[in-house]
Amino acid sequence: MGTSSGGFWSSRLGRWLESGKNIVGCVLAVVAIILQVTIGLGAFWPFIVVGGYLVGALLWPRDRLNLTLALGESASADDLKAQLAQLRKTMSSQGARLGADVTKSLGNLLDVLDEIVTKWDDLLAAPDQSHVVQQMIVDYLPTSLQTYLNIPATYALSSRVAGKKSAHDELLDQLALLETEAEKIRAAVYAKDLDALGDQSRFLQTKFGKSSLDLPSDPSTPSSPPGSDPS
To answer: 168, 163, 141, 165: which is closest to 153 by C-alpha?
Structure first.
């Protein structure tokens, strides 16, 4: 289920009310009430109703986050601002899950991208660079974040293999790389030296060729075929 665009439904309560866990819990509670009305469940029926809700809420799988707005190749500056705003909301709502180090790195990257988008008309003079910035905002960054947030928190912090990087560390590396490249583009835009970025697009497209964070798969769920929707 995607993140709501704003207002009440982007609050913690709103996200819970529209979550699969709440919906399934409510359905089971309603079924218990119907059974009480039709056949009777005895004196303990209120506990059965509450128990039905808790069973649904606890056992139903967590909704998978989808942070991409499905923007096309010709995304406008306003489209990019909307995507950045959604990513900031996610950073705020998922701060405890991401951790202080990721939140700080992500915030720095979003600040740089915000500045670049304010100069979007200038960047359009360099098609390769405007394309790669667009890919950062609509693909590379949201895909990396949603991949991380859709795996169990304890697994994200544990090593894949003893002595190797955790998913958390991999995400930090990805954010640092994106921030470094975004800062180069920002500096070039302000210096009006876009010719200096000739290799930038090719570098990032090679590094992020599959538009996904190089993280271990959630061991509790089957892997998705290439190109499938992560939501």
So the answer is: 168
Q: Write down the residue that tokens 């405890």 correspond to.
A: 96
> What tokens appear for 158 in the block?
């544990």
What would the DSSP string read from start to end of 65-123?
A: PB------TT--HHHHHHHHHHHHHHHHHTHHHH-HHHHHHHHHHHHHHHHHHHTHHHH
Find all residues with CB under 8 Å of 99, minimum gap 6, and list them: 168
What residue type is assigned to position 47 of the chain? Answer: F
Task: Tell me the pTM.
Answer: 0.61
Measured between alpha carbons, how far is residue 126 from residues 114, 143, 183, 197, 215 in Å?
Answer: 18, 25, 16, 9, 32
Q: Name the DSSP class of 7.
A: G
Phi and psi (nearest 5°) for 61? Answer: -60, 145
pLDDT digits (tens, 9 = 90+) for 36-60: 888 888 888 888 888 887 876 666 6
What is the torsional sign of CA 229, 68, 111, 103?
Answer: negative
For the chain, give me the number of helices (H) and strands (E)?
Answer: 12, 0
Helix (H) or strand (E) holding 15: helix 12-17
pLDDT tens, position by position, 51-102: 887 876 666 656 555 556 555 567 788 889 988 998 998 888 888 888 899 9
